Each structure stands twice: as structure tokens, then as C-alpha cells.
Amino acid sequence: MAAFLIALPHFISGKYQYTDNIKTASMEHVSGLCQEVSNHQAASSNQTCSEVKSHANNAVFPILLLGQLLLGIGGVPIQPFGISYIDDYSNKKNSPFYLGILFALTVIGPALGYLLGSLLLRFYVDFNTMSPGEIVLHRKDPRWVGAWWLGFLLAGTLLFLTSLPYLFFPRSMITEETVEATPESGAEQLKEKEEAVSDTTHELSLLQFLKKFPHIMLRTLRNPIYLLVVLAQVNLAAMVAGLATFMPKYIERQFSQTASFSNMMIGGLSIPSAMLGIMAGGMILRRFNLSVKASAILCSSAVLLAITFALPLLFLGCPTQTIAGINPTNSESFSRYPNCSSTCSCSDEAFNPVCGSDGVEFRSPCHAGCKTPVNNSLNYTDCACVGPAGSHGNAVPGICGNNCAHLLLPFMIFSSLTCFLASLSQTPSFMMILRTVTPEDKSFALGIQFMLFRVLAFLPAPVLYGSAIDSTCILWGKKCNKNTSCQYYNLDYFRHRFLGLQTFFVFGGLVFFFLSFLVLKRAGLAQRRSLEQMNSATSEKQNMKDVKPFLK
């Protein structure tokens, strides 16, 4: 239901509109050419902002919010109950391996989603209501919007079909026996496991649960290992939230790639690397049967290595392209801009980028002073702002780019290595939580953990990333004298602030994992001293018993 609600705005709102076309008698589509505009035409263009707005567009945002709300409600039980379920019904040695498989499979979904999004974004957003001949934009045009809504329809249908088999599972599963143990110890362990499961699955009424809730909450949050590991995971979850939301946009803007190609890079390289890291972490736990303290060392080491490979990303990027009137340059075109197009009456809302033959980019053909289109706007001539002063150059539709796409490959390599290393901590950190809380609090502790994920990571992190990215905008789009989306970014600021936040959150995860190791180390020393004191006291008592007969 949530997926269909999110796709609904496409069908109740009008067609996608972009600022481009001025219709003339000689040619049907002429994109924002330099021409004299009469006062009457200017007034009529301004009147469009005061026309009656569609009521359907006003309902779009609440529908999207409702869809996201339902999506969150539906996804809440899957992780905490699924993790607790697997840990309860499998032996202690196999549990990390099974959880590693679960976490890896949950990563496959986003990977397939990005790949599917890469395919669907190649289709125009209104392809279902427009013929191919009516679609003027090209996929490389920055105004291109792909069929974003189609993915929700496909994913919602597949999600419904895959949920049906769960209806046929039994209410309770058979507990996995410990194969490596002796029959006697195996029976004892199985009995203990069944007792733990019965405690975990003991049904409480709503009133009983509400009475015990404050006590369970305090008992869980007062566990220092649980709290530190959850805070470490919250930092890593905030990093993931930023990567999943804005990394395709970052690749698109930083390396002048299309949206579909950017999604393909994320789904084909970064997410599979994270999946391999999660599986490797589970296999390491199973192979070496790591203790809680050793798991903390593994998590700290993995995150430290991830930071090491993340730092070079801050220097792998492209400079901001030369944009007349926006990004300063020593080009002759910039020195005489905007006087060269002052008579063109260009609209501030116009955004139809063209690249001049001198490598300078303009917001529109009008801003470049172009007066003549060639081949149905595939090329522009007689552009007063292009080329040396006193001559009129040519321009082509689209952005000029920054000619550093060769840096994309090393960027993706370092990014994938960072994802792999950071993901090594996924399974060990969950096992630290499962092994340091009481069996009856296991499901509750995981529920609190995922609640903190959403409250402290997945809700504020995208807003924080979005604010940081917006602060790097150097030209906002305008419609009816209101800012819309950003048209141009300062790419250096974009890179440093976006990737700087990523590195900051990974470093936060390292700090809390290391603190958990220190707490475990101190607890181990205290326990060792206590045992030594007990052994010493026992030895003294035994010596007194041995000496006592000689004192008589």
C-alpha cells in the first residue's frame, strides 16, 4: 500500500513542465533564443504565476508523507524480530553466520533497487502519456526526469508476492541442536536454549508490558556495552543514510554523469562491496568463534581501516565548470558578460544549459546571446557571448562538463573498499548486543536499537546532508520568484562537505567501538582480579585447614 501511495502523485498531478520552449511560426520548438520581448509579452508571462493552481499538486506532499509513514511502519518488525528469531533458534556457533547471510541479503535489495532505478530512469517521467516524438529532452540534459514512479509500482507488487509464503510458516520453529557438543552437554544446552526461548516468547498482556516497560528500558540502557555499540551503529547508519540518499546525486554532479549511470555505479559496485563485507564479518565470527571483546577489536579495526581508505576520497573530485556570470573565470566571454546579452531580455527562470565553442557554459541560449538554431535546436549559431570579442560563436545544448571523468574509477574503488571494511563490523556488532543483554530482553533491546536508528540516524542525517549540500549551491532555480532546485553547485565545497560528513560519522563509529573495547577490557580485568582474590582466599582457608592439626 505504501509503495502504491508514493507512486500515486504521478497520476494525479499534471505533466512535468520545464523552462525551455518559445514557440515561433517558423519552428515548433526553439529553446529560449535571444530576441526582443515586448512589454505585453513580458506581462503575459508574469501572469502565469497568478493563475489558478492545480488542487492535485497541493495534495502531493501529504500523500508522499503518508506513503513514507506506512513504509516505515511496515518495515519496523522485520529486522528486530528477525534477528532475535534467528539467534533464538540456532546454536551459538552458527548464529553469526546466519545473521551475516540475513544482513547480506538485506543489502541485495537496495543493490537491485539502484540497478532497477538505473534502468527506469532512462525512460522519461511522462512516457506513459506522451509519444516518443513528443519527448524533446535527452537523458544527458540536466532537466531530464526519469520514470521514478515506476519503480515503486514494481517493488510494491514484488513485495506483496514475496510476503505471501510467510503466512504458511509454523507458529514456532524447531530449535537447532548443537552438533559439536557431546550428547550430554548437547542435551543440557538444548534445554537451556528452550528455556531461554520460552522466556523470550512469553506472552504478556498490554497492561503487563506497559507496567514493565520503564524497568526494562532502564535495565537495557544502563548496559554500557549495549549503549556504546548502539551509538557506534547509529553513526554508521547516519553514514549509510547519506550515502543511499545523496551518493547518486554526488556522482552525477561531481563527474558529469547521468542519473541512471550514477545509480548503476552504486548498485553495481558500492552495495555489493558492503554485502561482501557483511558476509565476511559473519564468516570470521563463525570461523574463529570470537568473544565479545574480540568482536569489539574486530569492529574497531575494520572501521579504522575504512577511515584510512575514505580520506583519499576528499581529494578525488572535479573543479566547478566555467559558467558565465556564475563561476568566475578569466575567459573573454565572462569579461563581457552580461553586456553581450543585455538586449535579449532573458528570463531569470530560464534554465536550458548550452556549451559554447570556447568551453564556457551558459544558463540558456538566450544568456549566450544565440539568435539562430540549427537542426531543430541541436546546435546554435550567431551567439554574441561565445568566442572572442566582436565575433559570434556557436553553442550546443547541454553542459560543458569538467573533463575529469577519469577520476570516477579510482573514486569508486576507494568508495567500495570503504564500504567493504565498514560493513565488516555489521554482524560482530549485532552479536555483541545479543551476547550482552539478557535473553528475555533480546527482542526489546533490538527494537530500541532500531528505534534509535530511525530517530538519531535515518531521520536527521538526510536533513543534515541536504542542508550541507544546499549550502554549496551557487545558483538556485526560480519559478514565480521562488527558489526551486539547485542548478549549479560549487563542486569543491560539495565534495568536502558531503564526504567530510561521511568521514565524520565513520570516525564517530570508531570512537564508540573503541570505548566499548575499553569497557570490556576493564570488566575483564575486574573479573580476573575477583577470581584471583577468591582463589587466594580459598587457598588460605585450605592452608589453615592443613596447618590446624599441627597446632593442637
Automatic annotation (TrEMBL):
Tell me the GO molecular function terms: bile acid transmembrane transporter activity; sodium-independent organic anion transmembrane transporter activity
Q: Where are the transmembrane segments?
A: 60-85, 97-125, 145-169, 225-244, 264-285, 297-317, 407-424, 444-465, 498-520
Name of the protein: Solute carrier organic anion transporter family member
N-terminal signal peptide:
none
Q: Name one GO cellular component term.
A: apical plasma membrane
What keywords are assigned to this protein?
Cell membrane, Disulfide bond, Ion transport, Membrane, Transmembrane, Transmembrane helix, Transport
Which InterPro entries did the record assign? Kazal_dom, Kazal_dom_sf, MFS_trans_sf, OATP
Q: Which GO terms describe its biological process?
A: monoatomic ion transport; sodium-independent organic anion transport
**SUPFAM superfamilies, from UniProt?**
Kazal-type serine protease inhibitors, MFS general substrate transporter
